[in-house]
Automatic annotation (TrEMBL):
Membrane topology: Peripheral membrane protein
Protein's UniProt keywords contain Transmembrane helix: no
InterPro entries: Flg_Motor_Flig, Flg_Motor_Flig_C, FliG_a-hlx, FliG_M, FliG_N
GO (cellular component) term, any one: bacterial-type flagellum basal body
Family matches, as PANTHER family: FLAGELLAR MOTOR SWITCH PROTEIN FLIG
Location(s) in or outside the cell: Bacterial flagellum basal body; Cell membrane
Chain ranges of the Flagellar motor switch protein FliG C-terminal domain: 225-331
Record's protein name: Flagellar motor switch protein FliG
Domain Flagellar motor switch protein FliG N-terminal as annotated: residue spans: 14-115
Signal peptide: none
Keywords, alphabetical: Bacterial flagellum, Cell membrane, Cell projection, Chemotaxis, Cilium, Flagellar rotation, Flagellum, Membrane
């Protein structure tokens, strides 16, 4: 037995996208499709997803919404957002295969989950795998991944293969849903299963992220205890962790970007308790004026608890990791530590 249909009657409970979805549905398929045709692809996906999951919107809520946006629609009736009504509207102005792809993503997260997983695979491992695939298959996979990660993979492909893959990526228009499902199945059954066996698992990455947020003194005790009972997983967690010391591996431009994003007071606290070599390294990438200001703030600080220093350093690490995740900077792998040039 399916779940009951949602009844939407509270204006304040609607998001901006949901309000737009109500308007499209109230306009009807013909007028709504003409309006939706003017949206870009990302906007179509957002509105379509909201329409498909909207449920039953009461006539009072529709009237309130329409009155706020325009008096012309004050007397609109109730609307029901469903997968079927969304698909019918999309079919009025999009090719059938594009509608199938969009509705497939709306109805279930399986496809999106796979591409998100691929976007988190080490770029070197992924480049090695794609180099042995047909260029067309590699092109589809890279086109569906996050742009920042696809860029990292592309530069690691052999030049001849890279050119072929780029040519096919440029020529890609739309990919049939059946083809995508086949590729996803292969990635799941062959690549991801093997990758999981050879590159650890999500639990170790999750523990590394947790440990990054624990103060150094406590973390030392944890590792001392863990290494006696789980030496191999403990070593793997250490490799996955990114610490304040690892910021030394960033190139000059990336470190400058991190410093600009950080609170100056937090940075001063973090550096006051850091070893001299680390402090000097941070200061070396600053302009003379910025360096003097930061030095003055560090020197004029009173005594600090080490707990405050650890907290400040952890905050700067979190800033750096967030910047790496959105592609602003690139954090070198631990194996690359000796190859960074400043």
């Amino acid at each position: 037995m399916g779940s009951p249909i949602k009844i939407r009657e509270n204006y304040k409970s609607l998001t901006g996208i949901e309000k737009s979805a109500v308007i499209f549905l109230a306009l009807g398929e013909e007028r709504g499709s003409r309006l939706m045709e003017r949206l870009d692809e990302d906007e179509i996906r957002l509105v379509s997803r909201a329409m498909a999951t909207l449920g039953n919107v009461t006539s009072n809520l529709v009237e309130t919404l329409m009155r706020i946006f325009t008096e012309r629609f004050a007397n609109a009736g109730s609307v029901v957002g469903s997968y079927d009504s969304t698909e019918r509207m999309l079919n009025r102005f999009l090719p059938a295969d594009r509608v199938t792809e969009i509705m497939g993503e709306i109805r279930g997260p399986a496809g999106r989950t796979m591409w998100e997983k691929m976007s988190n695979v080490n770029e070197g491992v992924l480049a090695s795998y794609l180099a042995g695939e047909y260029p067309q298959t590699a092109a589809v996979i890279l086109s569906k991944m996050r742009a920042d990660h696809a860029a990292k993979v592309l530069v690691l492909l052999p030049p001849v293969i890279r050119t072929e893959v780029i040519e096919r990526m440029i020529q890609i228009e739309s990919v049939q849903r059946e083809v995508l499902l086949d590729i996803e199945s292969i990635l799941h059954n062959e690549f991801m299963a093997n990758y999981a066996r050879t590159h650890g698992n999500d639990s170790l990455e999750r523990m590394a992220d947790i440990f990054n947020r624990i103060d150094r003194e406590t973390l030392t005790e944890i590792f001392d205890d863990l290494e006696t009972v789980m030496p191999e997983p403990t070593q793997r967690i250490k490799q996955l962790m990114f610490t304040f010391e690892d910021l030394m591996r960033l190139d000059r431009v990336s470190l400058q970007a991190v410093i600009r994003r950080c609170d100056t007071g937090q940075l001063a606290i973090a550096l006051k308790g850091a070893p001299a070599a680390q402090r000097d390294h941070f200061l070396s990438v600053l302009s003379e004026r910025a360096r003097l200001i930061l030095l003055d703030e560090i020197e004029n600080m009173g005594p600090l608890r080490m707990r405050d220093v650890n907290d400040a350093q952890a905050e700067i690490v979190r800033v750096a990791k967030a910047m790496a995740e959105d592609g602003t900077i690139i954090i070198p792998q631990s194996d690359d530590a000796d190859t960074v040039v400043y």
